[in-house]
Write a structure and sequence with these properties.
single chain, 226 residues, alpha+beta, Immunoglobulin-like, 2 domains, nine-stranded mixed beta sheet, 2 helices, 9 strands
Length: 226
């Protein structure tokens, strides 16, 4: 500070204008020095500015990050329960429906113009399904009917007369009885007439039979005396 004052005195002694300029400069310098001192004191009291340290944020590695996996499927295994089977108990073996054809034979027929008969059978063993005219009476008018179970009526007319031996009718039965059953086949109410004289003709009827086991059949027949 003393240094600057000495310069000011020299300036005044030399020249007053120059001294005024120097004084102005000195005043500015003094004011600037004081201002800088104030700034430095404020800065010292405030202390150093805090430093900000930025730490890098760790980025998770996709390879090291565990990937959640879906829970395993639960498979339930159910063991089938064995169901005991009971063998059916049958009183008698089952017989499937079977058809049997029963011919009605004529033996020694001579000029038979008309014939009528009733064939009886066991309806628990046999059931009529159809009736056809036999080969011996193929040119005759034929008819039949089942008015009640167990009885079959049949009749025919032949104006030329029936002669010889052979089936006059064929009855188709459905077998409905068990294997141990059987049925008699009996000809009843037999009526025959001569084709020319229209007189009665005597006949002898022979019964037949049928057994379910083995389908054993004996055909019924009508015999004409000589």
């Amino acid at each position: 500070m003393r240094y600057w004052l000495d310069i000011g005195l020299i300036a005044l002694s030399d020249h007053w204008k120059w001294a005024v300029g120097v004084a102005t400069v000195l005043l500015v310098v003094v004011i600037g020095t004081l201002f800088l001192g104030v700034l430095r004191s404020d800065t010292a009291e405030a202390g150093p500015a805090p430093s900000v340290i930025l730490e890098p944020t760790a980025i998770p590695d996709e390879a090291s990050t565990p990937i959640p996996t879906s829970p395993p499927d639960v498979v339930l295994t159910i063991s089938p329960t064995a169901v005991p089977t009971l063998a059916p108990v049958l009183a008698d073996p089952v017989v499937l429906p079977t058809t049997v054809n029963v011919p009605i034979y004529l033996t020694g027929a001579k000029n038979v113009g008309s014939l009528e008969f009733v064939l009886t059978y066991d309806p628990t063993v046999l059931e009529v399904s159809d009736v056809d005219v036999g080969g011996l009476a193929k040119n005759s008018l034929f008819d039949f009917g089942t008015r009640e179970p167990g009885r079959l009526w049949a009749g025919l007319i032949d104006t030329d007369g029936i002669n010889g031996d052979g089936p006059v009718a064929v009855v188709s039965f459905k077998v409905i009885g068990p294997g141990s059953s059987a049925s008699q086949l009996t000809l009843e109410n037999v009526s025959t007439y001569d084709a020319r004289s229209l007189l009665d003709i005597l006949t002898d009827a022979t019964s037949g039979s049928f057994t379910v086991d083995g389908l054993a059949l004996t055909a019924p027949a009508l015999a004409f005396p000589r």
